[in-house]
Amino acid sequence: MGNARVLTEGAMFLAIFSIMLGVAIYVPFTAIVLQFVFLLPFLLFAAKHPIKYSLLFFMLAFIISFFLGSVIGVTITLLYGVTGLIMGHGIQRNEAKGNIYVASSIGFLFSLLVLFVVAKLFFQFDVINEYQQMFKNTVNQYMDALTALGQTPSMELREQLLEMGNLIGSMAPTVLASGAFITVLILIAVNFPIAKWLKVEVPRFKPFRNVTFPKVIVWIYLVVLLCSMFITDDTSSFFQMVILNAVFLLQILLMIQGFSFIFYYAHFKKWVKIIPIMAVILMILLPFLLSIVRVLGIIDIGFNLRQRLNHKM
């Protein structure tokens, strides 16, 4: 009876995934929406059945995707299948939502790196180099357009823009990691409510206002900023790559801390939820305000602003 149920549900979820994949590949623009729910069949199956059946389910989906969509199909299955299985397995084990999020993000990032390596080894396609070349072509087109309009762009501006393109390779590790974590956060926000509606018990995140990072983050940030003073013009140096990625990553963490404090303060003052949400949207739309958020995050961590607020009650 148990095996019959596994076979029935496996066949059903495979059929659903195959239909979704076929529609996304052959019907224009549908992939824009379906990319958010590709992992749902994997999540639902892994949440109900042992890992050995989940791995078999993934292998069958991988084979089907190859015949349906060749490289595109396999790419989609690898990215979303691995992530969905990790999420579903975490739900089955009653893991905390934070643990599921981190594990799924690492799985998504690992799958992405595998795809990059395969593209380089078997298709001689270097994603980072191609992106850098595309950026340089855009800069050249921009300069040509200015010249056609009768303006004379300075060589300094051109060099600065091209230097930004050279930094893309150095920033690739952090950009990929950040992209993976942001993508998985969106996937959880979309798929967990659907899974809950389908009677799968999914964990909940703690309120965002309670997100805090240890004080050591501030000290590491200060040390990294000091190290950044010794960066040279050699964009290919390992030291520069490490420092640039560390600065970028730490700034993101401090901004998250700052946004968290905004939500904490709004909750403390009993403001309606729309106020901190609108404040965050405004700050994202006006990037110069993000430096203020980052400073707020540093002050919150370094001087225990939340504790001070609670003492004033």
Describe this structure in words.
The structure is a single chain. This protein is mainly α and 313 residues long. The protein is 80% helix and 0% strand. It contains twelve helices and no strands. It has helices at 2-26, 31-34, 40-48, 51-92, 97-123, 127-148, 155-197, 216-228, 238-268, 274-285, 290-303, 305-311. The longest helix is centred in the middle third of the chain and has 43 residues, at 155-197. It is globular and about 65 Å long. 24% of the residues are buried. The mean pLDDT is 83.
Distance between the termini: 60 Å
For the sheet with most strands, the description reads: none
Low-confidence stretches: none
Strand content: under 5%
Structural class: mainly alpha
Give me the count of strands: 0
Helix content: over 70%
The whole-number mean of residue pLDDT values reads: 83
Secondary-structure blueprint:
Blueprint: H1 2-26, H2 31-34, H3 40-48, H4 51-92, H5 97-123, H6 127-148, H7 155-197, H8 216-228, H9 238-268, H10 274-285, H11 290-303, H12 305-311
Keywords:
mainly alpha, 313 residues, 80% helix, 12 helices, 0% strand
